[in-house]
Amino acid sequence: MSDQESSREQRKPNRLINEQSPYLRQHAYNPVDWYPWGEEALARAKAQNKPILLSIGYSACHWCHVMERESFEDPETARLMNELFVPIKVDREERPDLDQIYMDAVQAFSGRGGWPLTMFLTPEGGPFFGGTYFPPQDRHGLPAFKRVLVSVAQAYRERAQDVAHNVEKITQAIGAMSDYSASELELPRTVVVEAAMALTRHYDRTYGGLGQAPKFPNTFAFSLFLRALDICADPVLAEIVDRTLTRMAKGGIYDQLGGGFHRYSVDQQWLVPHFEKMLYDNALLARLYLDAARALDRSEFLTTAHEIFDYVLREMTSPQGAFYSTQDADSEGEEGKFFTWTPDEVRAVLGPELAPIAERFFDVTAQGNFEGKNILHRTIEVADAAALFHVKPEEMERKIAEIRRRLFEVRERRVKPARDDKVLVAWNGLMIGALAEGYIALGEPRLLQAAARAADFVMTTMWDGRTLRRSCKDGVARFNAYLEDYAAMANALLDLYEASLDTKYISQARALIEVVLERFADRGRGGFFFTSEDHERLITRPKPLFDGSTPSGNSEAVLALLRLHAYTGEEAYLQQAQRAIKLFSGLMMQQPMGFAHMLEAVDLYHRGAREIVLVGDPGSAEFRQWRERLGLLYLPNRAFFAVNPAAPQPGLIPQAARGKTQVDGRLTAYVCRNFTCSPPQTSLAALEAELKRPA
C-alpha cells in the first residue's frame, strides 16, 4: 500500500460518503471538505460570503482521476480549497443540467471545454472564472492549481466589481445560447442530402472517420450518410460509411476480445483509444452497424453489432435487467492495463502454434504500440493470414476464434476496470432501442427479452405514472429527469413496439411524451427546454441544441413526436415537431454537424413514414418469416402495423389502410405513404420491391 493510500485509509470520510454516485464516492476520502450540490452548500457559501469551487466530472474520466491524485488528495491543496472556497463535487451524468450550464460558461470564458470541469462561482451560482484540468505545477501553458486557487480567492475578495462584471457577461452569453426565435427559412426537401454532402468534406480518405486526431465515432453523421444514401444512391456515401466502420471495427478503439467500443481514438488511425467504455456509445454504434449492414449488405457489420450486444449483456447489465453507465479507462491505477498485451503474455497463453498467428493477426510486437505494450488491432484479413500460415481460410477462422477465446479467458482473470453501476434513463433508452432493433435484424429472442426487461425496470422503478427519475442505484431512484430522459425512453418504447408488436409500449411512449409537452415545451418560441417547469431554479434554463456524443433532447423529442404521429394520427404531435424544426432550421443549415440527429428527424418529417401493414395471423410461421426478412432491410422512417383479422385494433391502423383486408385469406401487406396505400402484396418479393420504390 502506498503512503497516499495508507493516509487515505486513516481519514474520516467527507459528506460524499452518503451519495449514491460512484464518482462522488470516489472522492469521499479526499481531505477536501466536499459538498454535493444542494441547499446546504449554497447556504454556507452565502452565509460565509465564500465563492464556490465547483468540480464536475464522471467516473470513467481519466483526467478526473489524475486531478484527484495530484490535487484533491494533496493535503496542502485541500487546505487551500477548504479555507478559501465552499467545494462542491458534481457527477455530470446525474446532473447534466449543471454540466450543460457551466460547460457553456467555461467555453464562453476560455473557448474550450472538457472534464474535469473546474468552475468558480459566486454564492448565488454565478460563474466568474473557470477551466478544465489544472496541474499541480505550472505545465504546458497551464497555471498550477494552487496558484489559481489563491488568485481567484483574492480576486473575489478584492475586486468585487470585476467579479460581478464577469458574472453578468458570462451569464448573458450562456443565456443567449437558448434565446433565439424561429427562422423564416423553410428547410428545403433537399436539406438531408445537402447536409450530408457538406459533412463529407471532413472525411479522412485514408483511415475513415471525420477530421483528424483525436477522432470520435461521430455516429449521427454516419447515420445521416445512410439516410442520404437511401435518398440519392450516391456511391461516395456508401464508401465513406463502409471504410469508416470497417477501420473502426479493426482498430484498437474496438475491443477485439470482449466486444464493445472505447470512447474515442487519440490518434488518426483508430489505434490508441481512451479506454473507457460508455453505454451510450455502444448503444448508438450497435444501431449504426445494424443499419450499415442492411444498407450496404455487409454481414460482418452484423457480427460487430452482435459482439457489442454480447459485451453489454455480459458486463453492463444489472441483475434486475437495467444497464450500467460506464467502465473506467484505468485498472490498478494504470490506463489501459486491462486491455494491453506483451508478446510474452500472448505466448504464455497460446503456445508455439497459435502465438505466431495471434502476433501477426493482432499486430503484437516487442516494441508495442502503447507504452511498451500492445493494443490488439487487425492489420490483415483472415484470408491473408491463411495464406501466410499455409492453411485454408476456414481453418484460419477456427484458429483465430480459439485465439480470441483463450486470450479472453485469461484476460477475465485480470483486475477489471471499475464500473459505474448507476442506471440512467436516457442511456438505458438508447440501449433498449438498439437491442430491440438488434432483435429485428438478428432474430435473437434474448435481445428482445433484454430490451423488455430493461424497459420494465425503468417504467416500474423510475416512473411513477407521472414523473421520471434520472438515476437509480441500489434500487433508489433520484433526481428529476431531463428532456433527454423522457424523449430517449419514448423512442425506446416505440422501438420495443416495433420489435414485439405489444401495443402497451405505444401507450407508455405517449404517457412520457405528454409530460414533455406539458412540462418542457417552450410555448412561446417552440422547442423544448432541458429541464421541466418544476425543476430546481438555476441561473438559466437552457434549451439543448446540438447533437454531440448523445442526441440532444430536442432531436430525440422531435423524432418521438413524429413517430407517435405516424402511429396515432394525433395532429398535436406533428404540430409540436414542426414548431421545433422551424425553430432550429436556420442553425441546421449553418451547422449540420451539430444537428445530424435532428436532420434524421427532418428526413422523417419530409419523406413521411413508410407504413408497413401486415394483415394476417401474427402467430403464424409465414408472418414470422416475413418479419424476419423485413428485419434484414434498411428501412429508415419505418412504421410497422400488424392487423389480425380475428381481432383488429382500429386505433393502430393507418387511416389510409383501414378497411384493407387479406387477399384470398393469404397474408397480405400494404405499404402506405402520405395517406395513400400500395396495391395488396401477397408475396415477399413483391413487398420488397414496393419498399424499395422511391418515396
Quick overview:
The chain contains 25 helices and 21 strands.
Structure characteristics:
single chain; 695 residues; alpha+beta; Glutaredoxin; 5-stranded mixed beta sheet; 4-stranded mixed beta sheet; 25 helices; 50% helix; globular
The proportion of strand residues reads 5-15%
Q: Count every beta strand, where a strand is a DSSP E run of 2 or more residues.
A: 21
Percentage of residues assigned to helices: 40-55%
State the end-to-end CA separation.
66 Å
How are strands sequenced across the largest beta sheet? 1-3-2-4-5
Judging by the overall fold, what is the CATH architecture of the domain at 3-176? Answer: 3-Layer(aba) Sandwich
Structural class estimated from helices and strands: alpha+beta
Question: Which fold does the CATH topology of the domain at 3-176 refer to?
Answer: Glutaredoxin
Number of discrete helical segments: 25
| Rough outline | globular
Main sheet properties: 5 strands, mixed
CATH first level of the domain at 3-176: Alpha Beta
What is the CATH homology-level superfamily of the domain at 3-176?
Glutaredoxin
The low-confidence parts are none
